[in-house]
Write a structure and sequence with these properties.
Layout (H helix, E strand, L loop, with lengths): L4 E4 L5 E4 H29 L13 E10 L2 E15 L6 E8 L2 E8 L5 E8 L27
Antiparallel strand pairs: 1-2, 3-4, 3-7, 4-5, 5-6
Amino acid sequence: MKQKHYFCTRSCNLLLNIEESGNIARNVKSSKDNTMDLMKVAEEAFKSGSEMPDFGAGDTISVHYKIKEGNKERVQIFRGTVIQIKGTGVNKRFTVRKISNNVGIERIFPMNSPFIDKIDLNRRGKVRRKRIYYLRQLTGKKARIKEKRV
């Protein structure tokens, strides 16, 4: 039987047998699993200690956010409607929109930020979409969201 060879670009262009290539593929697969496990462990270690309520788009929440000014630290409350929740794992973030002096203000918060003191769920909204960007064009009574019955 004729042995087949292939080029392995990772190890300085060496020719390897098919039997060896099977072992390499198995090792690469197991090392990928190990890296995913290590990433999960790292994500767990960097999670902030504060508990998050279960909220979604359309809900009105109050975010208690720590702000440092010089050597003082205070908590500022940002109350508004959740427009979207984006990302997964450590990169998860949510956008909150509020109206202040007839000007719409949106702020993006990382979900597990150490600066978030706590989040209060004020009311649940009844919406059909996960991303409610259409609120940006609406003003006044049109911009209201119905409350979800529990």
